[in-house]
Amino acid sequence: MKAFPIIVSSPSGAGKTTIVDAVLKQNKTVSRVITATTRAPRKGEKDGKDYHFWTIKQFEQAIKKNQMLEWAQVHTSYYGIPKKSVDSLLKKGICPILVIDVQGSRTVKKQYPEAVMIFIIPPSLRELKKRILGRNDNTQDIEIRLETAKKEMQELDRYDYALLNDDLKKAITDMSGIISAEQCRIDRHDLKRLKILK
Fold first, then answer.
1. 3-state secondary structure of 175
2. Which of 116, 123, 160, 170 could form a disulfide with 166 if both were Cys (CB 3.0 to 4.6 A apart)?
3. Half-sphere exposure (CA, 13 Å, Cβ side) for 127?
4. For residue 42, what is the DSSP state?
């Protein structure tokens, strides 16, 4: 099978990290791509496992050398995906999962047209607000996130799959099913190898 990138996007609080983490535990043919950042590690975070923790100089050098697949500056920190993180997994025949926003997904799709795009939808904006409130965010931040969520969901028709997360167990099963089905597609296989009977 020819490995391919899997792009996963959703509004903040829709459950993308929980779903992806569950799928990664079940499926060894996929692996999450580690993002690079210039922010300081939080308690318990490990370099090379949770993030690649880079200096600002390292990150800006990578941008200049065109080594970043996509990147953004969030407040005072850089976040982005090193291209080699994706390519090294593809060479091993492992499908890289990229958990990125809608803007980043456009950039990745341009460079990897074979990528599969999955958008995770919350049951409703009311439920999304409830989930964000559960994270103890301030009210102003919640309103900003909800407005961002509405804009992000307008990009839904650019994605290959819409995955409704109103039942976590079903959403995990659906995500696994999407990946399995895409891995079975004829155009992702070397037909000479598949033709074992002459």
1. helix
2. 123
3. 11
4. P
